[in-house]
Amino acid sequence: MKLSLLAQCFSGALFSLNAVSEAIGKDQHKLQFDSAAISSSPLFSLHRKLMEIDSTSGNENDLGHFLKRFFENRNFTVETQSVEPVDAYGEKIQGAEGHPRFNLLAYPNRTRNTRVLVSSHIDTVPPYWPYEVRKHNEIWGRGSVDAKGCIATQIIAVEELMNSGKIVEGDVSFLFVVGEEIGGDGMRKANDLGLKWETVIFGEPTELKLASGHKGYLGVFVKAIGKAAHSGYPWLGENANSMLVPALYALDRIELPSSEKYGNTTLNIGMIEGGVAGNVIPEAAKAHITLRIAAGSPDDSKNIILDAIKKVDERLEVRFADGPYGPVYIDSDVEGFDTITVNYGTDIPNLKGDHKRYLYGPGSILVAHSDHEHVLASDLEQAVDGYKKLILAALDS
Whole-prediction pTM value? Predict the structure, then answer.
């Protein structure tokens, strides 16, 4: 495909950020957002549109369709890949109760096999809260950082490289997946696409630095089965909450593996559910726990967990989430970037292959998953340049 034709994939829909930067001011402290300025910017308008769509894990369908239309309108070939419905715990839902959800692979024209893959996840943690611009040009809302800031800046970076003729058909494709926040079922499904790449660039908040590694992951589900009864006659039943709580207390105090590079393995009791009413002895209770593994294998941590729970109550049921992994090495050999190690997990180990893998993105993980998630507008602009640099470096290698 000729360069002029390839550039036309985005023609008329997006234009260079340079003119916008001049219009709203190069000094970030002077940059003022209003509806017109955001709408006129390919980057900021795309970021806003992504954030205006609720895509909490298990509910990614609407955002998937938005991206599908977005790419098809720009002459990309788009493939969708269905992924099974899940609930907030990441457990599969049978029947018609779950929302449809799918991964999205997009590439210019018809060349499916590309040298570089640019990827991120379209799901966010709950609860959804909408887009808002606050003082100091901070963009607030769910997904502003994790990871819709990455998606928007990745798309704009590729668009600019295409329009400048620096990349051609067959160089770069996109893969946006569901379910990263609940264990990575989307990326594991993407292995069925049967594709290979020389380099994959993953998008997550890294403060505009290259991550050289991240902790491992282990998801744990603990369930207690008791017996329901009237709360006035507790001896007629067995309180599932009272069975579960001592085990959680014990887990919160166990010693887990540590390493010099990643620090301590951490354990978070993230969700607890039990009972149906205050005047009913709970028949069932369950908890969802996440470990960020700093050393050793997932099996090492599993054994510690099982031993601690067994000592409290052998009747408790324990199940481990699919796709556990130990600490992950990540390439960080492109010049011009500071490096960082991160404590969170990503989809990197879920995508199989011998490709080089980079992790990069705007914003800080320290505000992600919180009620104060936000990103600086200037970080988004810098991330566009960072992704362009990583893509070109990958193609030159």
Answer: 0.85
